[in-house]
Amino acid sequence: MFDPTKLAISDKQQGLVISMAALATGLSACYYLWSPSKNSADDNTTGKNVYREVPTAGSSIPYFGHLFSLGEIPGRTVTKWNQELGPMIQLNMGSQVWYVINDPMLAHEIFVTKGAVTSDRPIHTFFDYYTHGGRGISFANGSKTWKKSRTAALAVLAPQRVNDLTDVSLYEADNLVEQLLERTALYGHVDPSTILQAASLNVVLLTCFGKRVESVEDPLFKDIMNFVIPTVKHAGSEGSLSQFLPIFGLVDALVGKKRVFADFVSKVRDPLFARLIKDALSGDKDCYVKRFEEYDLDETDLIVIMSDFLAAGSDTISVTISWLFVILVSRPDIQQKLRNEVDAFVKVHKRLPTFEERNQMPYLIAVQKESLRFRSITYFGIPHRANKDIVVRDYLIPKDTVLVPNMIGMHMNEDIYDEPYVFNPDRFLGNTGTMFSSANGNIAKRDQYNFGWGRRICPGIHLAEVEMFHMCTRIFANCVITGSLDENGNEVLIDMDAASNCGIVLTPSPYKARFIPRTDSPLRSL
Ligand code: HEM
């Protein structure tokens, strides 16, 4: 049975060295010895009001050290604390106070009902460099520029516009299946993650810039991954030490993360996107860059917005499907049911289903939802920040508190899901509504919480859903997925608990699988 608190850690290389963490821990301890408690019961009063205490996780100082040095998977420890201490807990992170929430109803009240004051982003050193002082969508505060950029993104990602991209998405899904089958035939097995990244990248690359990469060996794919992977990593909750302990600011600027971030943005990100934008504007293909010209955005705005699209639109989908493969390798029974469902459709219609026909694939929809619930691809989403004092359910949330949705905690919350540690798609059977409508609808009926909240809710939900549906139908119609074989020809199962902290996203640890062509698919006789 899966226990999120026991996720194995495979990536121990991140962050600073242990000695820095020890120093940080020491300084952090001093800071809290000198500074008054921000949330003791006595302090929780304003005039006549007495507020409920937000319990402080006693070990937030060691946690801080963990985050910076030991390859900690942040959602792991914190989920245990939420389970022990309550739906909202406080972590003292140097000069920042974090409130971590694992109750979706409370999260809704904070992020949606009080969205006017809880939709800024936290102080994060990488965000400062990346946004060029507040541009773009994902990491900018809720300024006028952000509103303009988000409006443009919502327009191009609206379901109606995304439906026009069906052919692109289908082409990339077919190509993905071909690549997985070919590479398995060639090498005996394949780690699907990079191929998945190329497939999902191509959909956003084509729509944003009218270009695609031919394969994972394409130099453009490598250039873009040299942007996507560090961006997702740097934007993770750890950021840089100086955002928690300003005393490190100068060191950081000279030799630390600030230097790394500045160089990354000026030498890697900006030149790459300036080139992509120039080529797209001078080319003859219709693409988002051209449509964004309507919104009175300058070149720097476009660089940041397009980087948001490529970073958010490629890794998220590929990691989601990668987790699904990991789960299905050890669940041949579920794969069989998925094949039966897609075969039944093909026998009647003599073709594969489109996204509009998804109601005829209830089991597939249930498996997709359960997979996203069972393995949240982000552990903290992208945290928000309160820009004023607010009161929610008698809790006082002071200005500048970092508001962290604990995605693993929410999806493993027993008050919301029966037996949450069991992978059970049946819990979503009969619920074929789109994740898009669920995420934007009544909180009590929301299926899962992976797409975030309120004014910041992911604008790419529909695109993600369409792409994932196309990939899954094509994969189950054409392949059986198994583990690789050891030297004795025995199948090697993949450890579902082995995960790597890649910054914002939590990916499966590298694995090998086999994609075996189906000989019994009704597609063969068409
Ligand atoms: C399985 C796929 C995906 C997941 C799980 C996901 C999840 C998220 C989450 C958790 C956030 C932060 C929400 C918040 O702050 O409350 C977000 C924001 C965002 N996502 Fe996605 N996303 C996915 C796919 C996509 C795709 C395909 C795109 C489109 C290209 C996209 C574009 C964005 C953008 C631009 C933001 C920033 C929104 C803002 O800050 O206002 N995402 N996403």
From TrEMBL:
Protein name, per record: Cytochrome P450
Organism: Absidia repens
InterPro entries (alphabetical): Cyt_P450, Cyt_P450_CS, Cyt_P450_E_grp-I, Cyt_P450_sf, Cytochrome_P450_fung
Family according to the record: Belongs to the cytochrome P450 family.
Key words of the record: Heme, Iron, Metal-binding, Monooxygenase, Oxidoreductase
Residues involved in heme binding: C458
Gene Ontology molecular function: any one: monooxygenase activity
Cofactor: heme
Pfam name, any one: p450
